[in-house]
């Protein structure tokens, strides 16, 4: 039987959740396993409250009986567990493959701690092979895409079938193929200067731990001081 490495990493991360915590629920096929395990622990008596980073994760949590609260009821979270599309050795991340990067960043930044869960294919030396998702407003998207291209990438508007993909916030996603990002910090600054950019999928100095599941059944834990 082959090992589900995403499940392996996600379930390890759930061991860090303790009674009384306020937890951020990530989005994607790895976060799915974390939410599932959290649901099991809640049904065994774990007392937590949670907020979700997407409609899909909220629906899953509600179905499992995980108590959800609104953002007006909590001013910060203890821990967010979320996936990533790429992570490097210093825990700089590319996120947004599932289109939830804006909500994911808001929730992760509002958490004392972010644990990333991933399979080993996501661990890279240099970020950028995975096209960087950038959430942009629909207004004048053509100009925003042109500005993104000036940063040295090939931006492509994400599609969903025949339609342009829309995020939970009603925006578009431009997937920007850089191949290699020499300085994630410099690129983040350049992206923030483009008015049509709502948020980008570079997470820098946010995660303090990554749990990486490997096909041999082991896990690697990477810890950094995120400086937060
Ligand atoms: C969604 C994300 C996901 O965390 C990322 O795409 C990883 O997803 P998966 O665990 O399915 O590979 O950023 O916006």
List descriptors:
single chain; alpha/beta; Alpha-Beta Plaits; 6-stranded mixed beta sheet; 15 strands; globular; binds ribulose-5-phosphate
Report a brief summary of the structure.
Helices cover 26% and strands 27% of the residues. It has 228 residues and is α/β, with parallel strands linked by helices.
Mind explaining what this structure looks like?
It is a single chain. This protein has 228 residues and is of the alpha/beta class. The protein folds into 2 domains: 5-120 and 204-223, Rossmann fold; 132-198, ACT domain (Alpha-Beta Plaits). Helix content is 26%, strand content 27%. The protein is built from 6 helices and 15 strands. The chain has helices spanning 5-14, 31-43, 55-64, 101-109, 141-149, 184-192; strands spanning 22-25, 49-52, 77-82, 86-87, 93-94, 111-119, 132-136, 154-157, 159-160, 163-164, 172-177, 197-200, 202-203, 209-213, 219-223. It has a 6-stranded mixed beta sheet, sandwiched between helices. Strands 8-11-7-12 form a 4-stranded antiparallel beta sheet, with helices on one face. Strands 4-5-13 form a 3-stranded antiparallel beta sheet, with no helix packed on it. Helix 1 packs across helix 2 (31-43) and helix 2 (31-43) runs parallel beside helix 3. The termini are far apart. The model has no long low-confidence stretch (mean pLDDT 97). Bound molecules: ribulose-5-phosphate. Ribulose-5-phosphate (5RP) binds next to helix 4.
């Amino acid at each position: 039987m082959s090992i589900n490495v995403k499940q392996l990493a996600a379930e390890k991360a759930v061991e860090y959740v303790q009674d009384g915590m306020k937890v951020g629920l990530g989005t994607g096929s790895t976060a799915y396993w974390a939410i599932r395990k959290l649901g099991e622990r809640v049904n065994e008596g774990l007392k937590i409250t949670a907020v979700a980073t997407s409609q899909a994760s909220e629906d899953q949590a509600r179905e499992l009986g995980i108590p959800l609260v609104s953002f007006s009821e909590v001013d910060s979270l203890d821990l967010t567990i979320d996936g990533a599309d790429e992570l490097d050795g210093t825990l700089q991340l590319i996120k947004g493959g599932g289109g939830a990067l804006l909500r994911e960043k808001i929730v992760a930044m509002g958490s004392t701690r972010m644990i990333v869960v991933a399979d080993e294919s996501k661990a890279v030396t240099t970020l950028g092979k995975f096209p960087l998702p950038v959430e942009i407003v629909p207004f004048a998207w053509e100009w925003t895409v042109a500005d993104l291209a000036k940063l040295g990438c090939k931006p492509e508007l994400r599609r969903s079938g025949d339609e342009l993909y829309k995020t939970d916030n009603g925006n578009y996603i431009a997937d920007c193929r850089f191949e290699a990002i020499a300085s994630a910090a410099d690129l983040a600054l350049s992206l923030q200067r483009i008015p049509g950019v709502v948020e980008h999928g570079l997470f820098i100095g946010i995660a303090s731990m990554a749990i990486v599941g490997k096909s041999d059944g082991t896990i690697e834990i990477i810890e950094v001081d995120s400086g937060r």
